[in-house]
């Protein structure tokens, strides 16, 4: 495959689909991991270096507090694919080549490699924002760019955000469930969040939305796979 291809969807003829989570690790990631484990589902996590570094503490369902890097290790140990989102969730097209390469991509690649002992291969730029420079730097780092074709819209917020306050999310769990079910098709790459731009907690509604959507989609004979497995069958769809 050409490394400057931007992948948006898997093989349209095979009922494999990929759940992807951006902006984590975050406080809701342990609960997402619990739901994925409950249904034997493997997913892909596009992580922020700042959230791994910052060591946010999250309580899991045993009452134990675990840190950002322990969450990513757990996800890796449970068979999920760990990928790169960036370090600080900035729009990369507004940065210098030097900043994109050193501050964002190669830095996060190193953080993940040191943590899990595997070199990440996939990269999703914040806001899906890409230009030729971002594309070329990703290529130089041997990163494959993966976007999405199915939005859960879990990160959509109400327009009025109180400065310094918490986010008010537009959609609750039933809306998020419907957004996924309405848009799903063979090869879908589903955009979800387990954090929010490195600054806020993700929409907790994604947890119960998935607890309802996953078994229904499995009943419809969809297989949940990592991005790696989604692309392994070839015939994936790239952006025009
Ligand atoms: Zn993001």
From TrEMBL:
<dbReference type="InterPro" id="IPR002509">
    <property type="entry name" value="NODB_dom"/>
</dbReference>
<keyword id="KW-0479">Metal-binding</keyword>
<dbReference type="GO" id="GO:0005975">
    <property type="term" value="P:carbohydrate metabolic process"/>
</dbReference>
<dbReference type="GO" id="GO:0046872">
    <property type="term" value="F:metal ion binding"/>
</dbReference>
<dbReference type="GO" id="GO:0016810">
    <property type="term" value="F:hydrolase activity, acting on carbon-nitrogen (but not peptide) bonds"/>
</dbReference>
<dbReference type="InterPro" id="IPR050248">
    <property type="entry name" value="Polysacc_deacetylase_ArnD"/>
</dbReference>
<feature type="domain" description="NodB homology">
    <location>
        <begin position="15"/>
        <end position="225"/>
    </location>
</feature>
<dbReference type="InterPro" id="IPR011330">
    <property type="entry name" value="Glyco_hydro/deAcase_b/a-brl"/>
</dbReference>
<dbReference type="GO" id="GO:0016020">
    <property type="term" value="C:membrane"/>
</dbReference>
<dbReference type="Pfam" id="PF01522">
    <property type="entry name" value="Polysacc_deac_1"/>
</dbReference>
<protein>
    <submittedName>
        <fullName>Polysaccharide deacetylase</fullName>
    </submittedName>
</protein>
<keyword id="KW-0378">Hydrolase</keyword>
């Amino acid at each position: 495959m050409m490394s400057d291809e931007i992948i948006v969807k898997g093989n349209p003829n095979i009922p494999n689909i990929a759940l992807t989570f951006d902006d984590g690790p975050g406080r809701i990631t342990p609960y997402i991991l619990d739901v994925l484990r409950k249904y034997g589902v493997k997913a892909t996590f596009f992580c922020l270096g700042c959230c791994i570094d910052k060591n946010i503490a999250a309580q899991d369902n045993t009452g134990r507090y675990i840190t950002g890097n322990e969450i990513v290790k757990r996800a890796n140990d449970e068979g999920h694919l760990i990928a790169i989102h960036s370090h600080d969730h900035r729009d990369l097209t507004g940065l210098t080549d030097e900043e994109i390469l050193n501050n964002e991509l190669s830095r996060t690649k190193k953080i993940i490699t040191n943590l899990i002992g595997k070199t990440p291969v996939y990269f999703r730029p914040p806001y899906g924002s890409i230009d030729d420079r971002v594309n070329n730097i990703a290529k130089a780092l041997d990163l494959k760019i993966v976007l999405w074709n199915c939005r859960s819209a879990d990160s959509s917020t109400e327009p009025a955000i109180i400065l310094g306050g918490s986010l008010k999310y537009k959609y609750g769990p039933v809306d998020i469930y419907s957004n996924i079910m309405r848009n799903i098709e063979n090869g879908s790459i589903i955009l979800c969040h387990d954090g929010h731009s490195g600054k806020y907690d993700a929409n907790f509604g994604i947890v119960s939305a998935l607890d309802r959507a996953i078994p229904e989609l499995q009943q419809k004979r969809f297989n949940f796979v990592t991005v790696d497995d989604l692309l392994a069958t070839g015939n994936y769809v790239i952006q025009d």
